[in-house]
Recover the amino acids of this structure.
């Protein structure tokens, strides 16, 4: 049996969400990790980039794909104290999206800033 | 160094599982410690006791099991990932009134919290995704 959860110093997690919401389970897996880490009082940031930006679009009709609404899960992140929700500037520009139209307020960061976040995080997980 | 290993791939649909297996073996050979193996998403299928690979192909679940036994490694299959893929231990098979259980001896089923716990205990967490 696994050992029970031990107390450790809180770590910083950077979850990088690069997958579109409904073609695989990757988007959901990333959000599950983010929510779990936050529930265990870790410092969690999530950055959406590439096709992962599609997870942030309003008006997702997840029912049509018989899947859970990823946009709705994202709106719960702050409630669970996922500290920072970020989007990759260059991906936003490439897809010609307006961050004001996303399901949740986001911070826009450049690729260089993401490099710094990766270097600073204790744990980096890419989905 | 203390490592934890996260396995995202099923035994034969991605290289992730075999790469993770070889990495774990190499880490142990070099004297490192494995805090935990965490089998997530499709990786849960590595814990299946019902895989029958052809005789001339590698038995990845069997090799995991042998490695886990030899080195007494804590091997956790994510519960949510495992249940929906039909990887059940005896207790869950009984609870959900299924006609069989399918988890290899040496593996245990637990929640995502065990991954966060492993991160806290390890110097490095290495994920095998593709």
């Amino acid at each position: 049996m696994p050992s029970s959860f031990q107390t450790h110093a809180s770590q910083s997690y950077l979850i990088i969400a690069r997958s579109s919401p409904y073609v695989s389970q990757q988007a959901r897996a990333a959000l599950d990790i983010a929510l779990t880490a936050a529930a265990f009082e870790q410092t969690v940031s999530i950055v959406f980039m590439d096709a992962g930006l599609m997870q942030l679009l309003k008006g997702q009709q997840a029912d049509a794909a018989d899947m859970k609404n990823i946009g709705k899960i994202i709106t719960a992140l702050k409630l669970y104290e996922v500290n920072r929700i970020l989007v990759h500037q260059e991906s936003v520009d490439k897809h010609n999206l307006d961050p004001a139209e996303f399901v949740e307020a986001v911070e826009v960061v450049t690729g260089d800033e993401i490099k710094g976040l990766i270097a600073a995080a204790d744990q980096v997980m890419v989905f | 160094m203390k490592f934890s290993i996260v396995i995202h791939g099923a035994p034969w649909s991605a290289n992730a599982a075999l790469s993770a297996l070889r990495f774990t073996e190499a880490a142990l050979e070099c004297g490192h410690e494995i805090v935990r193996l965490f089998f997530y998403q499709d990786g849960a299928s590595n814990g299946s006791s019902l895989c029958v690979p052809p005789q001339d192909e590698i038995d990845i679940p069997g090799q995991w099991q042998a490695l886990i036994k030899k080195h007494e490694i804590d091997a956790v299959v994510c519960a949510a990932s495992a249940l929906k893929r039909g990887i059940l231990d005896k207790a869950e098979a009984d609870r959900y009134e299924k006609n069989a259980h399918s988890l290899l001896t040496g593996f245990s089923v637990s929640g995502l919290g065990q991954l966060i716990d492993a991160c806290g205990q390890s110097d490095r967490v290495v994920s095998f995704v593709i």
User: Anything to note?
Assistant: The radius of gyration of chain B is 14 Å.
